[in-house]
Design brief:
CATH architecture of the domain at 23-86: Roll
Keywords: Nucleotide-binding
Number of strands: 7
Distance between the termini: 54 Å
GO molecular function, one term: nucleotide binding
Strand content: 25-35%
CATH topology of the domain at 23-86: Ubiquitin-like (UB roll)
Organism: Gloeophyllum trabeum (strain ATCC 11539 / FP-39264 / Madison 617) (Brown rot fungus)
Structural class: alpha+beta
Protein name: MOCS2A
InterPro entries: Beta-grasp_dom_sf, MOCS2A, Mopterin_synth/thiamin_S_b, ThiS/MoaD-like
Radius of gyration: 13 Å
Helix content: 10-25%
Largest sheet: 5 strands, mixed
Amino acid sequence: MSDSSPEVTVLYFAGASTATGTSSERVRLSSPGPQPLSSLSSLLLSLHPGAGLEHVLRTCQWSVDAEMVEDPDSVLLKGGEEVAVIPPVSGG
């Protein structure tokens, strides 16, 4: 039986890129049906255990297909999306 779970492309910026050691990766979602964006955090943490990503994800902003997301529970990932993890930016 083949795994029919959809994939998304995750883009990592700043501290998220440092924690994961990459700027992007393809991630297979945990089930074939649509999933809330908010469920992606635990999946990313399982792919990068002990990398310090938990702190970054707690304070990050998300974008899906270049649109900023206000409420990660309200956005459903169906596969094929480009999801960006954007840590807080400090200016000076």
